[in-house]
Specification:
The chain is an all-alpha fold. The protein has four helices and no strands. Helix 1 runs antiparallel to helix 2 and helix 1 packs across helix 3. The longest helix has about 30 residues.
Length: about 120
């Protein structure tokens, strides 16, 4: 019974971590009026890089905080979900691919760092 509860908690942690990433991404593009698969200015791409990096870190941190696993297993799963959906989008959408590339090569790996940061913080 305890193992089942732990697995549900880890599953929910991953879902919530991914939701943080997706909701904040949608919010940025809604507020800015820029379409995610369209060309953008270098300044907006940089803003997206900084904004997305921060929220990716937060999504990894929250995933680890909820899961409380003391290892990065849930963060690696979050990484694969983020990178997987971005890769799927890369192959299925038309237009510019800069958002998908950021998600695959920057945001997904940074979510692991969020979990790592929390583990290291509580290890002391």
């Amino acid at each position: 019974m305890i193992k089942g509860i732990i697995m549900i908690k880890q599953f929910l942690a991953i879902i919530i971590g991914y939701a943080i990433f997706v909701i904040t991404s949608v919010f940025l593009f809604k507020i800015s009026g820029v379409k995610p698969h369209s060309e953008a200015t270098v300044a907006f791409m940089f803003l997206t890089f900084v904004y997305g990096s921060g929220f990716s870190f937060l999504s990894g941190l929250v995933t680890q905080f909820i899961a409380k696993t003391r290892n990065l297993k849930t963060n690696y799963i979050l990484f694969f979900i983020m990178a997987g959906f971005a890769t799927f989008s890369l192959f299925k959408s038309s237009g510019s691919f800069w958002t998908q590339l950021l998600a695959i090569f920057i945001f997904a790996p940074i979510s692991i760092l969020g979990g790592y940061f929390l583990i290291r913080k509580f290890k002391k």
